Amino acid sequence: MEINVNGRVVPLGDISPETPLLYVLRNDLHLNGPKYGCGLGECGACTVLINGVAARSCSMPLAAVGSKSVTTLEGLGTPETPHPVQQGFIDEQAAQCGYCVNGMIMTLVALFEREPEADEQAIKKELAYNLCRCGTHLEILRAAERARALLAARRQA
C-alpha cells in the first residue's frame, strides 16, 4: 500500500486499510500539522485536503484515500515562503495555543480554492465546525480576510 502525501508517493508497508489517515500521517509519516482533537471528525483539528477538498483525517480510513492526493499543513508552504493563508495567520497573529490552526488554515485553503472571493459570511459558515477553545475567532476572521487579499494580489501578479 502507498499514499500520495504533499506531492510524494510514500510506501506504507503493512498498515491496515482501516487505520485512520490521521494516525498514518502523524505516527508513520511524522507530519504534525493535523492534530488529534475529538477523534470523531467534529472539531476540525485533523483537517487535511483530499484532492483539494477539506476532510477530517481522524475519521477517514486509509482505504478511503486510495490514490487520491493528500495535502497537509506541511505541504502548503515553507517557513521562508508560507502559503498566503498561513501568511494571513502570521500577519494577524491569529493563533493563541495553536491547536485549531491546522484545521482553520486547511479549511480556508479549500474554501478560497473553490470560492476565491468568499465574503465574511461564507468564511464564517465554512469555519463553523472548526472549534477554537481559546476564543481567537476575531483574529481568525481577520486572518481569513488578509489571506483572501494576499491570494487576490497573487492572482493579479
TrEMBL record:
Residues 1-76 form the 2Fe-2S ferredoxin-type domain. The keyword Cell membrane does not apply. PROSITE patterns: 2FE2S_FER_1, 2FE2S_FER_2. The keyword Iron-sulfur applies. SUPFAM superfamilies: 2Fe-2S ferredoxin-like, CO dehydrogenase ISP C-domain like. InterPro entries: 2Fe-2S-bd (IPR002888), 2Fe-2S-bd_dom_sf (IPR036884), 2Fe-2S_ferredoxin-like_sf (IPR036010), 2Fe-2S_ferredoxin-type (IPR001041), 2Fe2S_fd_BS (IPR006058), Beta-grasp_dom_sf (IPR012675), Diverse_Oxidoreductases (IPR051452). Pfam families: Fer2 (PF00111), Fer2_2 (PF01799). GO terms for molecular function: 2 iron, 2 sulfur cluster binding; metal ion binding; oxidoreductase activity. Keywords: 2Fe-2S, Iron, Iron-sulfur, Metal-binding, Oxidoreductase. This is 2Fe-2S iron-sulfur cluster binding domain-containing protein.
